[in-house]
Design a protein that fits this description.
CATH class of the largest domain in chain A: Alpha Beta
Strand order of the largest sheet of chain B: 1-2
Distance between the termini of chain B: 12 Å
Number of strands of chain A: 21
Radius of gyration of chain A: 25 Å
Helix content of chain A: 25-40%
Largest sheet of chain A: 11 strands, mixed
Oligomer: heterodimer
Shape of chain B: globular
CATH topology of the largest domain in chain A: Dipeptide-binding Protein, domain 3
Number of helices of chain A: 17
Structural class of chain A: alpha+beta
Number of helices of chain B: 13
Largest sheet of chain B: 2 strands, antiparallel
Distance between the termini of chain A: 27 Å
Helix content of chain B: over 70%
């Protein structure tokens, strides 16, 4: 090695070091939705979880593809009713106290005890019927029946410090006094509606992180979030709107990271009632029977939709045609199931076979401020239905109005987006026969009922072995794809934009984590 | 005088009462916020639990009764999503909105009156016509579009000002203000200019009309004939005489500045009350919606009451009318 090349290497190393330290200063991220509290058990809303995951950690984490991985603990299942979690040693809360089994048990009980909260976390801890502290670093959890989805549930429940959280109010969490987790960042300041300032946890068990200061800016307005990135006010933004995609892609100094999201956009068809609202003959008279109860009609509707066109034109590439209930990397996705191909002639034939040669009319209800270009997607689908002789109208409204009405049974055909980490989970909510006692079919707006599917979902959820459970969940996905309790349209694609000297491992669960941004 | 104040106070309480009932029923009619708030995995039992936890399982009259009982004790309920008492949320956001509205007002007055005087003085000149054309644009262009254009021009293309948000705040008499520092001023400039646009146009037109009218008056001619400089005539004689309507309108329009701040706050991610209201409507956070409207109505009622009392103090006829009635 000559002196010259050594010098070169030194210079390169110095430059790399300089670049690192320059970037190391601060990372500013533009978030797309408001964070309402730093109490991680108050409301199970994704924007809140995004911010809280910087400060708190859960036993189980989810990787970029949506699969469960160990975080604060590793686990084993000595028998199908018992889950043993071994805590990582040497993990400290931000106040310096060590993480113990006591904190874990406290954190799993807190969601059930919290008052005056819309919650959502109780669902995740309810399957646990007994908690046993074996030693300082071991917790055993018992379920009443074998329950394979416990890991996915526990990924949602963050571990708080028992000492700090006992008796703490919302103000204590928001002010930082009780917001003491084990996470990579410490809460410096939570300014509601404006920003969240975080500082690196220097004693983080996971090693040294590239950013010593992180600011999460709340920028819900799409054009403004984009403008903030273009102007250099932030280093990265989440949820790039489809309208700005081309501009950001072409811009020098910026780059995009994309992943197929866990969110599937689908149409619920009311199969429960005899006269679904808005589903009438072409002359506007009530139909003799509910056409959606006929599987051929459901298939015809699915074939009438040109998913490729919707994804390319309406979604401007931010989608992938869907046939499964969950997107490709998610647990229980059946790769053998393909999205229905566009086949208007086949659709017309099926409709004629089912006794609707002249079609009928329907009203498709959709939110207009929830999913990517939701109303435009509904309009496109309605046009495509019209091509096969089904006169379709679109009724669009804000989510706040839509959800209440849809659950109240005001519509015959409804658009819904669903993001979840397992197919059996999704089918339990969306397609299983509604049964409040079991918690099945809570979002089965179509009123679909199939004992075979229910049994398959129950078997999958009751299987502790991940490989066996996934095989069952795949079968359930395939059954749903054959029977069409609902019509999958597309999986959304989620996009981040950032300065070109950064990189982000795009996540299928759409979360934005500062600690996953890396300088290049 | 006391009777008049008392009567107005009772009227105001009645207004607050009716308003709260209307808003309560209105938000109830839209739907159950729990469906928006719960996580997708939530089953029926969890939805029922959350509904009960927020008190939404009770009949509407009972929910309203609970609210009124709390309101009498000064407790307007806790937000469904913010984990904080609604009144505290609103008071916390109020300085940001008032700061924005006052900055906008300052811009409107500081630019509007001189430009209006100029346009009134030389109505047919190139300058006068340009100012008037500009004011028409200010009237007719939608706020959100102008806001985006301001951001694109001054932040993205020129890079002079930050795109959005509020600058660092410092406590002044316990109120967090951002306009005390250079960074804060840089942040407030664009949103305030955007918000000021309508008021600015209004003031220009008002001042111009007043000036043109005043210039034709005899006292101006006498002042000119006396040999006073035009500058002095404008400043001392014209401005003083047209000041009354300008001050009145400026005061009245302050309310609409706060109201219109909703749009500007949303565009510029300004953490004020208006944005809080919009966010709360989106998730049907009823305690915040009701509390916001009550607080705003209370402010307006208080201002009106104050104005009426001032009138009463200034003008004996009002007092007499009040005493007779």
């Amino acid at each position: 090695m000559t002196g010259n090349s050594v010098l070169k290497q030194v210079i390169v190393a110095l430059a790399a070091w300089a670049a690192c330290t320059l970037h190391a200063a601060e990372l500013r991220i533009g978030l797309s939705a408001d964070v309402t509290t730093m109490d991680p058990h108050f409301i199970a809303a994704q924007p809140n979880l995004t911010a809280q995951h910087h400060v708190f950690e859960s036993l189980v984490h989810v990787d970029e593809r949506g699969r469960s991985i160990p975080l604060l603990a590793t686990w084993r299942t000595p028998d199908p009713l018992t889950w043993e979690f071994n805590l990582r040693k040497g993990v400290k809360f931000h106040d310096g106290t060590g993480l113990t089994a006591e904190d874990v048990v406290y954190s799993l009980e807190r969601p059930l005890a919290i008052t005056g909260s819309p919650g959502g976390f109780a669902t995740y801890v309810k399957p646990i019927v007994a908690k046993q502290i074996v030693d300082r670093y071991t917790v055993r959890l018992k379920t009443a029946a074998p329950y394979g989805a416990l890991l996915q549930d526990l990924a949602e429940v963050m571990i708080v410090s028992k000492k700090a959280a006992t008796g703490a109010t919302g103000a204590d969490f928001d002010g930082g006094k009780a917001a003491l987790g084990t996470g990579p960042y410490k809460l410096v300041k939570f300014s509601r509606g404006d920003r969240i300032e975080l500082a690196r946890n220097e004693e983080y068990w996971g090693g040294r992180l590239p950013w010593d200061k992180v600011t999460l800016r709340i920028l819900p307005s799409d054009p403004v979030r984009t403008a903030a990135l273009l102007a250099g006010d932030v280093d990265a933004i989440e949820h790039v709107p489809s309208a700005d995609l081309a501009k950001l892609r072409a811009r020098a100094g910026l780059k995009l990271a994309q992943a197929v999201s866990w969110r599937t956009i689908l149409l619920h068809l009311d199969q429960g009632r005899d006269q679904p609202p808005g589903v009438l003959s072409k002359a506007g008279k009530p139909l003799e029977r509910n056409p959606f109860k006929d599987a051929r009609v459901r298939r015809a509707l699915s074939k009438a939709i040109n998913r490729r066109l919707i994804v390319e034109r309406v979604m401007e590439g931010l989608g992938l045609p869907a046939g499964n209930v969950v997107s490709p990397s998610v647990f229980g996705h059946d790769p053998a199931v393909k999205a229905d191909a566009y086949d208007p002639e086949g659709a017309k034939k099926l409709l004629a076979e089912a006794g609707y040669p002249d079609g009928f009319q329907l009203t498709l209800a959709t939110p207009n401020n929830r999913y990517i270009n939701d109303e435009q997607v509904a309009q496109a689908v309605a046009q495509m239905f019209s091509r096969v002789g089904i006169a379709a109208k679109v009724e669009a409204m804000p989510l706040s109005v839509y959800f209440g009405k849809a659950r109240g049974g005001a519509f015959g055909v409804t658009l819904l987006g669903w993001g979840t980490l397992a197919a059996d989970f999704a089918l339990r909510s969306l397609a299983a026969t509604a049964d409040p006692g079991k918690g099945y079919g809570a979002w089965n707006w179509g009123g679909y009922a199939n004992a075979g599917l229910d049994a398959l979902v129950a078997r999958a959820l009751g299987t502790v072995d991940p490989a066996q459970r996934e095989a069952l969940a795949r079968n359930a996905s395939a059954l749903a794809a054959r029977e069409l309790p609902f019509i999958p349209l597309h999986y959304q694609v989620v996009t981040w934009a950032m300065k070109s000297n950064l990189s982000y491992a795009a996540r299928t669960d759409e979360f934005t984590f500062a600690h996953h941004f890396k300088p290049q | 005088m006391l009777g008049f104040a008392l009567r107005r106070l009772i009227q105001s309480v009645l207004v607050l009462f009716v308003m709260s009932a209307l808003v309560f029923a209105g938000v109830y009619a839209i739907g159950n916020p729990v469906y928006i708030l719960v996580s997708p995995q939530a089953d029926q039992a969890e939805i029922a639990r959350a509904t009960a936890a927020l008190g939404l399982d009770r009949p509407l009259w009972e929910q309203y009764w609970t609210f009124v009982a709390g309101a009498v004790g000064g407790e307007l309920g806790k937000s469904f999503v913010w984990n904080t008492p609604a009144v505290q949320l609103i008071l916390e956001r109020m300085p940001a909105t008032l700061e924005l509205a006052l900055s906008a007002m300052a811009i409107a007055v500081a630019l509007g009156i001189p430009l209006g005087l100029l346009a009134g003085l030389r109505p047919d000149s190139w300058t006068g016509r340009t100012i008037m054309a500009g004011s028409i644009l200010g009237f007719s262009l939608p706020t959100f579009w102008v806001g985006l254009m301001l951001i694109m021009l001054f932040s993205v293309e020129l890079g002079w000002l930050p795109t959005s948000g509020r600058g660092p705040t410092t406590e002044v008499l316990g109120v967090p203000l951002s306009v005390t520092g250079w960074e804060g001023l840089r942040h407030v400039l664009l949103p305030a200019a955007n918000l000021a646009l309508f008021q600015l146009s209004l003031l220009i037109r008002l001042t111009r009309a007043g000036t043109r009218e005043a210039l034709a008056q005899d006292y101006v001619r006498y002042a000119r004939a006396k040999g006073l400089a035009m500058e002095r005539v404008m400043r001392v004689h014209v401005l003083k005489n047209i000041a009354i309507p300008i001050v009145t309108v400026t005061g009245l329009e302050f309310g609409s500045l706060i109201a219109f701040a909703v749009v500007t706050e949303t565009i510029f991610a300004w953490p004020g009350m208006g944005k809080l209201l919009i966010d709360s409507i989106n998730v049907l956070d009823r305690p915040v919606i009701v509390a916001y409207l009550l607080v705003v109505v209370a402010i307006f009622v208080a201002i009106n009451l104050l104005v009426d009392l001032l009138y009463g103090a200034l003008d004996p006829r009002v007092r007499l009318a009040g005493a007779r009635a």
